[in-house]
Design brief:
Layout: H1 17-32, E1 51-62, E2 65-77, E3 82-86, H2 93-100, E4 108-117, E5 120-121, H3 127-133, E6 138-141, H4 145-148, H5 155-167, H6 171-184, H7 190-193, H8 203-215, E7 221-225, H9 233-250, E8 253-258, H10 261-267, E9 270-275, E10 278-284, H11 285-290, H12 295-302, E11 352-353, E12 358-360
Parallel strand pairs: 3-8, 3-9, 6-7, 7-8
Antiparallel strand pairs: 1-2, 1-4, 4-5, 9-10, 10-12, 11-12
Helix pairs in contact: 5-6, 6-8, 8-9
Length: 370
């Protein structure tokens, strides 16, 4: 039986859209025996993304010239969705993530495009308005917790500071809540660890502290920038499982920024692949891994070791990433592409819709359809 989408009138108008979604998806989920909000988009808010990035352009101004680190990036993330932004070092994925919070270095500027979060144009907000949004509505887990945490303050103080600023708690209330947050992220003996300094914790525990800080205000969007870098494989799995559990518990959307295709394959519903400042392919994760259409994506997937396959040497993409100050004409990947033809040097391919649920920036994409 087909279930009708709830009306705004039934649930009290546009202000209660999220409540309507939760109620509706909870009801339908019970009927089907599944959680509709765990992965994928909610049926009610699918038409209005939580985050919409439109033609984002970010440049860094150096003595050598302008570096176009992000050059026309567009994507959307829905309520409760897990979205993966993947690419090798220097492709612009971390700069994209930092741009969402307007946390660029001094010589970095957002020079074009738009960022819309929950109906608000972030680039039009004052710095004071952005400060109230950071950590509250949008939170970020940074790449290296040892450099992100302040070494001269206890982890409890640093978590408590977030609670005092955004939730108006007293110092005593914030400390009690910090202990509960440490317990939530499965740090043993939270009553004792709350008074520990960052250097007294292991790498995995420091990353859990960063997650606790990010979740202190129950954000609607969590940005995880290489959340498992420098952690051993066992701890990586624990951190990723923890994030998945907390995402399901709080219903937040997650943006995974990573070079690890394994994380994307296991955790993300949709994925965008970046190269030299641009998204070259976007698709649902299962579709992209089954049939990649951009030569760069195909090269990345060929380089992944697979269980049950014995090869002497893994495939590698020839050449190196182009100098951002001297980008080639035409396709930016053409000098490394084994499928390049003469037209690739003449045409600068843009990300274009390809079918119902994917987009690709390659003039030969149709030839790779399986």
């Amino acid at each position: 039986m087909r279930t009708k989408r709830p009306s705004r009138k039934l649930y009290g108008g546009a202000r209660n859209v999220l409540q309507a979604c939760a109620t509706h998806c909870g009801e339908v989920g019970k009927q089907r025996g599944v959680s509709l909000s765990r992965f994928g988009r909610c049926c009610y808010t699918a038409a209005v993304p939580l985050l919409e990035v439109r033609d984002l352009r970010v440049s860094f101004f150096t003595p050598r010239g302008e570096v176009r680190a992000v050059d026309g990036v567009s994507f959307t993330i829905d309520e409760g969705e897990t979205f993966g932004l993947v690419g090798e070092s220097g492709c612009g994925k971390s700069v994209t993530a930092l741009s969402l919070l307007r946390l660029l270095d001094g010589n970095g500027r957002i020079v074009g495009g738009d960022i819309v979060f929950a109906g608000r144009t972030l680039l039009a907000l004052s710095e004071e308005e952005m400060r109230s949004l950071r950590g509250d509505q949008i939170a970020m887990v940074f790449q290296e917790p040892m450099t992100s945490l302040n070494p001269v303050f206890t982890v409890g103080y640093q978590i408590g500071e977030v609670l005092e600023v955004h939730r108006g708690m007293s110092r005593k209330q914030a400390r009690a809540e910090a202990i509960e947050l440490l317990r939530l992220v499965e740090i043993p003996e939270p009553e004792r660890r709350v008074d520990a300094y960052p250097h007294q914790l292991s790498g995995g525990m420091r990353q859990r502290v960063m997650i606790a800080m990010a979740l202190a205000c129950r954000p609607r969007l969590l940005i995880a920038d290489e959340p498992t870098t420098a952690l051993d494989v066992t701890i990586q799995a624990q951190i990723l499982d923890l994030l998945a559990h907390l995402q399901e518990q709080f219903g937040m959307a997650v943006l995974f920024v990573t070079h690890d295709l394994g994380i994307v394959a296991e955790r993300a519903r949709r994925v965008a692949v970046m190269y030299a400042g641009r998204i070259v392919e976007e698709a649902e994760t299962a579709t992209l891994f089954r049939n990649p259409l951009h030569p760069y994506t195909r090269g990345l997937l060929r380089s992944i070791p697979r269980l049950g396959m014995r090869v002497r040497r893994l495939a590698a993409i020839p050449g190196s990433v182009p100098d951002p100050l001297a980008l080639p004409s035409g396709c930016r990947f053409r000098d490394r592409c084994t499928y390049a033809v003469a037209r690739c040097g003449e045409i600068d391919p843009q990300l274009e819709p390809f079918g119902d649920s994917r987009a690709v920036a390659c003039i030969r994409a149709q030839e790779f359809v399986e």
